[in-house]
Design goal:
Blueprint: E1 4-7, H1 14-26, H2 31-50, H3 66-75, H4 87-93, E2 100-105, E3 108-113, E4 116-117, E5 120-121, H5 122-128, H6 143-163, H7 165-169
Length: about 180
């Protein structure tokens, strides 16, 4: 069961949606582009954890409460916020991690983490917060992120329309082909 899932959807004016639908009718497989977006997602998440949230236009995560910060400093003096064991970060940035979510279909991309602690989705807990834990958004599609992903998508669409879908599919990296 997926605990934290990112679904990128385009919303906006009807004209834009109609144009995207027209392009989708011509291109039946966005797999190559989705793998590039997934690579960017992992790089972005690594930088976000390294900067304790303050990356790509996102705000820095809220600090730890003083009591917990003291306990954590004694056990893990160099660990940053949300990196006590490093498992949550690894589940987002390491595509080989058993808790890493990457689902690529011809017209669907899902990325995230299914890391759990005591049956609770760790990503969800930290992303939304609880009564005792402040929200520290792990996955945010900032303006900068959206622009990068849009550029990747537009380049992929341009290449596909120029080269033809069958030739473009050949560029899917080895190990990623279905």
């Amino acid at each position: 069961m997926v605990e934290y899932l990112l679904n990128l959807k385009v919303s906006g004016e009807k004209e834009i949606s109609n144009k995207i639908s027209a392009i989708e009718d011509q291109i039946d497989d966005f797999t190559n582009v989705f793998y590039r977006i997934a690579d960017d997602f992992r790089r972005t998440e690594k930088k976000k954890f390294d900067a304790e949230g303050a990356y790509d236009g996102a705000k820095k995560w809220k600090p730890l409460n003083k009591e917990y910060a003291k306990r954590k400093a004694m056990k893990k003096p160099k660990a940053k916020i949300l990196e006590y064991s490093g498992a949550l970060k690894q589940s987002l940035i390491n595509k080989g991690d058993t808790n890493h979510i990457l689902k690529v279909e011809p017209k669907e991309l899902s990325m995230g983490t299914k890391k759990k602690v005591d049956g609770w989705g760790l990503g969800r807990i930290h992303h939304y917060g609880t009564k005792r834990i402040p929200a520290r958004p792990i996955i945010e599609i900032t303006k900068q992120t959206a622009e990068r992903w849009s550029d990747l998508l537009l380049r992929g669409i341009r290449q596909t329309l120029t080269m033809g879908a069958e030739k473009y599919k050949q560029y899917v990296p080895k190990g990623r082909r279905r």
